[in-house]
Amino acid sequence: MIRCGGKRLDRPGWFYPPTVITDIRRDMPIFCEEVFGPVASVYRAADIDEAIEIANATTFGLGSNAWTRDESEQQRFIDGIEAGQVFINGMVVSYPELPFGGIKRSGYGRELSGHGIREFCNAKTVWIGSPETGDSSGGTKVE
């Protein structure tokens, strides 16, 4: 159910108003698509186990967030959720020193931070053995 927003604005450009959707079922497109934009998909769960199960049921895993003051629930969510980013008691935060990226169908690897720099590098192992003996124990390490 669309609680607010959800209609294209009557003006030039590609603008979309902030939208909140609730009462989402697994057979709805919003459940099985990765939505970008000012859209909040609100799910209802009986407990943290069901919340984690619902979140992990999607084929996407860019980011997730949960609100709880209970530190044990926070840790269960962090450990159990299948996403590249987990936000507790807040929304998406991005800093250049933190890696950013998803898992599953939400992307490959990370950008930003030292992790992101390594995504653009290809490490190569080179080992040179003795041509006379073919001995593999006394090779030369090349970086």
UniProtKB/TrEMBL annotation:
InterPro entries: Ald_DH/histidinol_DH, Ald_DH_C, Ald_DH_N, Aldehyde_DH_dom, GABD/Sad-like. Residues 3-126 form the Aldehyde dehydrogenase domain. GO terms for molecular function: succinate-semialdehyde dehydrogenase (NAD+) activity. Pfam families: Aldedh. Keywords: Oxidoreductase. SUPFAM superfamilies: ALDH-like. The keyword Lipoprotein does not apply. PANTHER family: SUCCINATE SEMIALDEHYDE DEHYDROGENASE [NAD(P)+] SAD (PTHR43217). This is Aldehyde dehydrogenase family protein. It comes from Mycobacterium xenopi 4042. The lineage of its organism: Bacteria, Bacillati, Actinomycetota, Actinomycetes, Mycobacteriales.
